């Protein structure tokens, strides 16, 4: 983690230095070109000193140009590159101020102000450097005013000194704000680039994993079909042979032998059921994925017809069931297995099953509640595992696959399934189903029908 943080710090500092160097070189070149040209203003404002001022400007411009040209050879930092013209012009202006009268001082104030405005535009550094330059400039002004100027402090302040000092303070604030905002911007951009790269990498990994998973699932499905069909043939042979043997020895064998033959046939049937269950599980969710409008009440009425109930058994379909957009085959598999499970494992004289739904805004929560023996909490997750049966596995229909199929389908459509139950208090299977809007092609079809 520390290594990663150091790398991030190194990256933003490198990019920040590159950007700052570019800005400071631009500012330095502007100083090289424009500072000497200001002699034109000097010529008209204070003609008696313009030659001295031109010489000073040429010295500052030359030092600045030298810093630009020799920066790599002398390994000058980006701060030094712009510090040379900034400090040079500040001291140059300090001397110029000290030899001016009140009128000239007033006229020349905007030149000093231009220096700080230019610094605010081109300089990107920590505030400490601005404070150092301005402090040196102030010291230079005080010393030179003491030596050359005949003006009082009041005359200096009201004729430009106070305004210049105010602009200098704002220049410090501006460079401070730019330094931190650009720093934050670079860090944020680099983090965004890094996060984008990570997301793209994760997307590639996920896409690759999905492709590999699809290939594996296809191979497993094909393998399950092949193995199942290959196993069914010898199983049928064993079943037929055992039936023939049973018929041949019916009058000769004792009761114990007949019972063993029945046990053999039962095991064959059990194996056949498990193979059928494996096939059903492998196909669950892989059938036609077409989505259509389903009236859950009508679907449940249809599903309930497939169960044989005793006279006092009841399946209550409570009001409020929605119409949903989902794959009908999947929904039939889910409810068939849940209701079948509730019937098969019920230990009561009269079976009582309730089916209802609660609207959860972004999803529907369906419940299949029975009055059976209940399930202990430690088995609430285990019952969804493949081939897990809590009661007699030899009971007809007990393959331990039905609830695994339900869980697989519910999770594939983006839902969640869980159990609310305690021993002796019945069981409620609950599952959520995200709401799906009406398919676009169906909406367009209905509009075309209206238009026609």
Largest sheet: 5 strands, mixed
Measure the end-to-end span: 65 Å
Cross-sheet strand order for the largest sheet: 2-4-5-7-6
How helical, in percent, are the residues?
A: 55-70%
Shape: rod-shaped
Mean pLDDT: 82
What's the alpha carbon Rg, rounded to whole Å?
Answer: 44 Å
Oligomer: single chain
Count of DSSP-assigned helices: 12
Task: State the order of secondary-structure elements, H for helix, E for strand.
Answer: HHHHHHHHEHEEHEEHEEH
Number of domains: 2
Question: In what range is the share of β-strand residues?
Answer: 5-15%
Instruction: Quickly give the structural class.
Output: alpha+beta
**Uncertain stretches of 5 or more adjacent residues:** 392-397, 443-452
> Strand tally, please?
7
What can you see in these coordinates?
There is one protein chain. The chain is built from 12 helices and 7 strands. A hairpin with a 5-residue loop joins strand 6 and strand 7. The protein is rod-shaped.
């Amino acid at each position: 983690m520390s290594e990663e943080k150091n790398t991030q710090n190194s990256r933003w500092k490198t990019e920040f230095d590159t950007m700052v160097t570019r800005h400071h070189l631009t500012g330095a070149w502007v100083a090289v070109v424009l500072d000497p040209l200001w002699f034109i203003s000097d010529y008209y404002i204070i003609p008696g000193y313009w030659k001295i001022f031109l010489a000073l400007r040429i010295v500052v411009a030359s030092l600045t140009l030298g810093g630009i040209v020799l920066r790599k050879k002398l390994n000058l930092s980006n701060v030094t590159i712009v510090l040379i013209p900034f400090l040079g012009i500040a001291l140059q202006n300090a001397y110029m101020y000290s030899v001016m009268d009140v009128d000239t001082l007033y006229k020349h104030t905007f030149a000093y102000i231009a220096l700080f405005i230019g610094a605010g535009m081109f300089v990107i550094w920590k505030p400490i450097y601005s404070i150092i330059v301005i402090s040196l400039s102030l010291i230079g002004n005080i010393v030179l005013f003491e030596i050359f100027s005949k003006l009082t402090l009041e005359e200096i302040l009201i004729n430009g000194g106070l305004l210049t000092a105010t602009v200098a303070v704002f220049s410090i604030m501006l460079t401070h704000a730019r330094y931190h905002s650009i720093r934050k911007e670079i860090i944020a951009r680099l983090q965004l680039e890094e996060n984008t790269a990570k997301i793209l990498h994760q997307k590639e990994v996920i896409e690759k994993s999905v492709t590999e998973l699809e290939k594996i699932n296809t191979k497993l499905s094909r393998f399950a079909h092949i193995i199942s069909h290959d196993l069914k043939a010898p199983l049928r042979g064993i079943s037929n042979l055992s039936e023939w043997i049973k018929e041949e020895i019916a009058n000769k064998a004792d009761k114990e032998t007949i019972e063993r033959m029945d046990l053999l046939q039962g095991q064959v049937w059990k194996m056949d059921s498990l193979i059928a269950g494996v096939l059903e599980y492998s196909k669950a969710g892989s059938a036609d994925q077409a989505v259509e409008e389903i009236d859950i009440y009508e679907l449940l009425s249809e599903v309930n017809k497939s169960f044989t109930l005793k006279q006092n058994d009841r399946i209550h379909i409570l009001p409020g069931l929605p119409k949903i957009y989902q794959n009908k085959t999947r929904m039939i598999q889910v409810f068939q297995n849940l209701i079948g499970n509730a019937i098969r494992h019920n230990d009561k004289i009269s079976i009582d099953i309730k089916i209802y739904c609660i609207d959860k805004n972004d999803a529907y929560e369906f419940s299949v509640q029975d009055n059976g023996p209940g399930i202990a909490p430690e088995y609430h997750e285990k019952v969804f595992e493949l081939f897990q049966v809590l009661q007699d596995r030899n009971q007809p229909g007990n393959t331990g696959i039905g609830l695994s199929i339900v869980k697989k389908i519910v999770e594939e459509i983006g839902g969640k399934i869980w159990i609310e139950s305690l021993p002796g208090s019945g069981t409620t299977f609950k599952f959520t189903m995200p709401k799906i809007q009406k398919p676009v092609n169906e909406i367009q079809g209905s509009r075309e029908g209206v238009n026609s």
